[in-house]
Amino acid sequence: MKYRSVFDIIGPVMIGPSSSHTAGAARIGRVARSLFRREPRRIIVSFYGSFAETYKGHGTDVAIIGGLLDFDTFDERIKTAIQIAEEKGIYVEFRTEDAVPVHPNTARIVISDDEGELALTGISIGGGKIEITELNGFELRLSGNHPAILVVHNDKFGTIAGVANVLAKFSINVGHMEVARKDVGQLALMTIEVDQNIEEEVLDELSTLPNIIQVTKIAD
C-alpha cells in the first residue's frame, strides 16, 4: 500500500485517542451534516462491531456528535459535543447493535428535523479515513476525502450523460463515479467524486436537468 503523506499513517490532527474511533467517527458525522445541509434536531446513532464495544472509552460518541455539529477533527469543542448538542435542544440517542457488520468500525446515523430525515451508514477504515456505504437506502462507496456531488434522479436514459455534459462545461474533472438504483426505472443515486470544490452555480444547473430530483454536495 502506498501512502501520500505521513498523515495517511498516523491520522489527521485530531481530538481524541484514536484516528479510527475518534477522527474517523467525526468525519462520518460531518459528512452526514454536510448532506443534511443544516443542524439536525434529532440524532440517533447506532454502533456496530468494535464501535459498539468501545465507543465510550475511545470518544466515538462525542466525535460523531461533534461531526454532526460541523466540528472538524481538531476542534476542541468535540470534547463536550454531546453537552453542546443537549444545550441546543437537540435530542441525542446512542444504540449498540448485535448484528455483525461487514467492517468492525461501523456507525449508522439517522438525523432529522421537521423538514426531513437522512439515514447514513459509514465505516472508519483507519488513519482517520472513512467510507460511506449507504445513504437513504442506496448502497454506495464514498470516501468523504474529496469534494463530491450526489444526484438523486429518476433512472431514465440520458440522465447520466446530461450530468456529465454539465461537469464538462464547468471543467470539473471526475475522480470516481458510480450509480446505485433501487430498481430498474425507479429512483437512482449518482455519486461523483471530483478534484475541486463545487460552486453553487454547478448545482443549480444540474438541478434544471430532466429527471433530476435533488442535488447536494460534500465540500473538501
TrEMBL record:
Pfam name, any one: SDH_beta
Pathway(s): Carbohydrate biosynthesis; gluconeogenesis
GO biological process: gluconeogenesis
Cofactor(s) required for function per UniProt: [4Fe-4S] cluster
InterPro entries registered for this protein in UniProt: ACT-like_dom_sf, ACT_dom, ASB_dom_sf, Fe-S_L-Ser, Fe-S_L-Ser_bsu, Ser_deHydtase_bsu
Annotated catalysed reactions: L-serine = pyruvate + NH4(+)
Keyword Repressor: no
Single Gene Ontology MF annotation: metal ion binding
Keyword set, alphabetical order: 4Fe-4S, Gluconeogenesis, Iron, Iron-sulfur, Lyase, Metal-binding
CDD domains assigned to the protein according to its UniProt record, in alphabetical order: ACT_LSD (cd04903)
Family listed: Belongs to the iron-sulfur dependent L-serine dehydratase family.
This protein's name: L-serine deaminase
Originating organism: Bacillus velezensis
Gene this protein is translated from: sdhB
